[in-house]
Automatic annotation (TrEMBL):
InterPro entries for this protein: Aldolase_TIM, NMO
GO molecular function: nitronate monooxygenase activity
Highest taxon in the source lineage: Bacteria
Stored Gene3D superfamilies: Aldolase class I
Protein's recorded name: Nitronate monooxygenase
PANTHER family reported in the protein's UniProt record: BLR1330 PROTEIN (PTHR42747:SF4), NITRONATE MONOOXYGENASE-RELATED (PTHR42747)
Keywords: Flavoprotein, FMN, Monooxygenase, Oxidoreductase
Family the entry assigns: Belongs to the nitronate monooxygenase family. NMO class I subfamily.
Pfam families cross-referenced by the UniProt entry: NMO
Taxonomic lineage of the native organism: Bacteria, Pseudomonadati, Pseudomonadota, Alphaproteobacteria, Hyphomicrobiales
Length: 309
């Protein structure tokens, strides 16, 4: 790993920013375990709370820990972007991940202190725009991702983006074990974006019932629908049913918006990706990462045996 961002990482994995789930505890635990940790700034209601979180994270981390990242919504509806960006400039996260808008509004600030900018993309149109904006990397959200999901195969997505982009690629969507990490790296990605595997972590802010539902779920216990937020997202069937939706016929797309009402829906209806089924206990991030590393090394060894030099 020659890229400075990756130099301190034990595994090429970012614990993905999860709405209402990722807090300082999860970010710090991920970085201490040697992977990347990220959180959405929308998890905080005010800039003052964001200031507190960023202060907590930066005080806890030391040289040699994995990188941490802030996930910024750059959509015009985010009236707090300027305030959040000012705090990013103060605390200098090594990585900033933009979503739901062009990365252009944040590029000058982040590159000014030496940080990296990744754009969250779900298709090639957005990927090309991100490349034109000069991003350092992309988080390619593929089919199988939890929450707002993509529709492209991760392998096809990596290949297509690599044809015009030589920056870093993080790919997310249904990857929840070490073999999946190895497969993504072999396909041309630099990093894996992993959320669902960390939902039931001890340090996750997911509600206890949410964690229990993830532990009980399998890949067939998910429904992708735009009926909840107006954007296709992957939800746990049991939580849809509890909220009055029929997973077989969830209904017409909801009005697409970014208001407090949508936040309430995320609190009541729980997202997960096709990585469900790998978690069978609530355990610390450190133990999850240790298992992922052992699986990753075994997969790399197996690949080396099957494809001798």
């Amino acid at each position: 790993m020659t890229e400075p961002l990756l130099a301190s990482m034990r595994l090429p994995v970012i614990c993905a920013p999860m709405f209402l789930v990722s807090g300082p505890e999860l970010v710090i635990a991920a970085a201490k375990a040697g992977i990347g940790g990220a959180f959405p700034t929308t998890n905080l209601r005010t800039p003052a709370e964001l200031d507190e979180w960023m202060g907590t994270i930066t005080q806890a981390l030391e040289p040699g820990d994995g990188p941490w990242a802030a996930n910024l919504i750059t959509h015009s509806s985010n009236t707090r972007l300027a305030d959040d960006l000012a705090l990013v400039a103060e605390y200098k996260p090594p990585l900033v991940i933009t979503a739901l808008g062009s990365p252009k509004p944040v590029m000058e600030t982040i590159k000014g202190y030496g940080g990296k900018v990744f754009a969250d993309v779900v298709n090639l149109k957005l990927a090309r725009k991100a490349a034109e904006a000069g991003v350092d990397g992309m988080a390619c959200i593929s089919t199988g991702a939890g929450g707002h999901t993509g529709h492209l195969s991760p392998f096809a997505f990596i290949s297509a983006v690599r044809s015009f982009f030589d920056g870093m690629i993080a790919v997310g969507g249904g990857i929840s074990d070490g073999a999946g990490i190895a497969g993504a790296i072999a396909a041309g990605a630099d990093l894996v974006y992993m959320g669902t595997r960390f939902l039931p972590a001890t340090e996750s802010r997911a509600a206890p019932a949410y964690k229990a539902m993830v532990l009980d779920a399998g890949i067939d216990d998910l429904t992708v629908t735009s009926a909840v937020t107006g954007t296709p997202a992957s939800w746990l069937n049991a939580s849809l049913e509890a909220a009055g939706y029929d997973p077989a016929r969830p209904g017409a797309p909801a009005k697409r918006e970014y208001s407090g009402d949508v936040a309430k829906r995320w609190r009541d209806i729980w997202a997960a990706g096709q990585g469900v089924g790998k978690s069978r206990a609530i355990e610390p991030v450190s133990e999850i990462v240790a298992k992922l590393e052992a699986e990753y090394r075994a997969a790399v060894a197996q690949l080396s045996e099957k494809v001798p030099a």
